[in-house]
Every structure is written in C-alpha cells, then in structure tokens.
Specification:
The protein is α+β, with helices and mostly antiparallel strands. It has helices at residues 20-31, 37-43, 102-116, 131-137, 159-165, 170-181, 194-197, 207-212, 248-261, 276-282, and strands at 4-6, 11-14, 54-59, 65-78, 81-93, 121-124, 141-152, 202-203, 219-223, 226-232, 236-242, 266-271, 287-297.
C-alpha cells in the first residue's frame, strides 16, 4: 500500500505519528476549536490491536492539510472469537476545498488500506449529513438505529452552560466537580460491555482497550450497587452501566441529584435496541431515535445484525 499519492491538484499521505499533528491543525480550521495535539496522537495510536494510523490526509500544493478521513482499529468479540475491525471516525474537509470529491477519494483509499491490514469490518455512527454519502457513494449498509434516553435535570444552577460561555471559570468548576464526584469515583478505567451480558457481539473491552480509551476524559462512578461510565459534555452522558435492576428508580434519582449539584441540565444514554439496558431504561424514559449503525463488510463473513453497541463504543466518548 503506497503511503504517498500525488495528483495534479493535491497530495495524499497516509496518517503517521508525525503528520497526525496536521489533523489537529485541520480540525482547528474546520471547527474553529483547538484540540490538544496529543489528543489525536493518542486516539489513533491503536498499537494494542496490531495496527495503527489507518487514514489519509490530503494536502494542497503549499502542503496545507485540506482533507482527512480515518478509521480506528478495534477488536470485536464475536461468538467466542475475535475480529479485527475498525470504527469510522474523523472526516474533515477544509471549507475552501469542499465539493471536490475528497471525502470519497480518501475513504476509498482508507478502505483499501484496511484490507491490506487485514481489517475485516468497519462500523460507524454518522450524523444525518454524512449518512447519504456513506450509503449512496460508499455502499455501507444500515443494520439499525441506536436509541437515546434523554433525562432532564431540573432545579439546579446552569453551571455547565456558564463554564462553556465563560472559559475562565473552567479551572474553578473543575475543582468543584472533582470535590462533588470524589466520594462516588470507582478506581477503574471503564466497565465491561453490557452488550456481552445480553449475549450479543460487540467491542471487546479488555484491559488494553480501556487503557487506550483514556485519550478521552471519562470516569466511572458508583451509586449504591450500580456503576456508571460517564463523560461530561453537553450534560452528563452515560457510556455504559452495570445496574442493579431492583434499585434502578432510587439509583437514577441519586444520579439525577448528582447531576443537579454539578449544574448540568440533562443526562443521556444511547444504546442499541433489544438489549437489557434498553428495556430497563424504556420502562421509565421515552426513547428517541439517535445514531444510525452502519457497516462496511470487508470479508468478515459474520451476521451484522448480532453486533450491538452503547455510547461508550463511539469514538467521541
């Protein structure tokens, strides 16, 4: 697989440990929001799977990064075996170079690289703007949609919103957040997949995966006999959970009270349908359709309908 492709309009380079900083630079241009350079370096360093840096960057004649597409290798536990798979992740095009077919070009080259690296399956959770391109131009298929449970948190002070508006408040808020969470924190990086408990197939969350996943600031908290893997971003997001069903209502009441003290306005949880956590939440909260689950099969030979996810499996968690 060539790591460098030249055309008359631009140059394409495979992602590596050096040019990964150009992904951060492009992200800043596209979203007008700076990301620490080490964030993408950690996110795409998936050496624990046996392969890393699966993606391509396009540069113009001045070597300005103008587009990027990449996937994140991961391991899928399937019927007692392990499949080398990947999650479709960041897609970015410089505002001045859109509508030139760069996304499709980079994606197809990335898929060829996946095949060369013996990645058998790619999955993703695109937004509604990206979905038509994946389905129409790149021949992905939808298996189902995740559901989101939105739980309002009423009566608290809008601390999170104030911190997002006035960034100088963030250090003080972080201290307050740590103080409030201190007695709830569990000494573990993440939690095992609730999908496996339901005897579905899904992302293998072994110790290596959980160590890798620390590129994103998440925490595990314990309330009564239940554990929640959470992240604070636009409220409190539950990535996954180990829940004592008998005490569910009381435990959720305490979780809502904790969110109220932290000044967030909502709690949300996304999961595949037909799972035990989905059924448990649906008894008390109204589900709303959220992310489509899409696959591009590169020769896995497995039944895609038997693979399920929670929000903890998505790269933005």
């Amino acid at each position: 697989m060539n790591d460098l492709v030249q055309t008359t309009a631009y140059t394409i380079e495979r992602l590596n440990s050096v040019n990964i900083n150009d992904v951060a630079a492009l992200h800043n241009i596209v979203y007008n929001r700076a990301i620490p350079k080490e964030f993408f370096a950690k996110k795409y360093d998936t050496a624990y799977t046996g392969t890393s840096y699966i993606g391509y960057i396009a540069y113009n004649a001045s070597h300005l990064p103008i587009a990027y597409y990449g996937v994140i290798p991961t391991l899928i536990s399937y019927d007692g075996g392990i499949i080398l798979a990947a999650q479709s992740a960041d897609t970015m095009t410089h505002p001045k170079f859109r509508y030139a077919g760069l996304f499709t070009t980079l994606a197809k080259q990335t898929f060829d690289l996946c095949t060369a690296e013996e990645i058998k399956l790619i999955f993703g959770f695109p937004n509604q703007n990206s979905l038509p391109g994946f389905i129409g131009k790149l021949q992905w298929q939808i298996t189902e949609y995740m559901d989101c449970f939105m739980i309002p948190v009423k009566g608290g002070q809008p601390l999170e919103r104030l911190v997002n508006k006035f960034s100088f408040l963030k250090p003080a808020y972080n201290l307050y957040e740590n103080l409030i969470l201190k007695k709830f924190l569990a000494q573990q990086r993440g939690i095992s997949s609730s999908i496996s408990v339901d005897h579905y197939n899904g992302v293998l969350r072994g110790e290596s995966y959980l160590k890798y996943k620390t590129y994103s600031p998440t925490r595990v908290i314990q309330i009564d006999q239940s554990k929640f893997w959470i992240k604070f971003q636009n409220g409190m997001t539950i990535g996954d959970a180990e829940i004592n069903k008998i005490d569910f209502v009381a435990t959720m009441g305490k979780l809502i009270e904790l969110a109220r003290k932290l000044g967030v306005s909502q709690i949300q949880f996304h999961t595949s349908p037909n799972t035990s956590l989905h059924a448990l939440f649906a008894e008390h909260y109204q589900p709303v359709t959220s992310f489509p689950i899409i696959f591009k099969d590169l020769g896995s030979g497995v039944s895609l309908e038997n693979i399920k996810f929670t929000f903890a499996d998505i790269d933005v968690f």
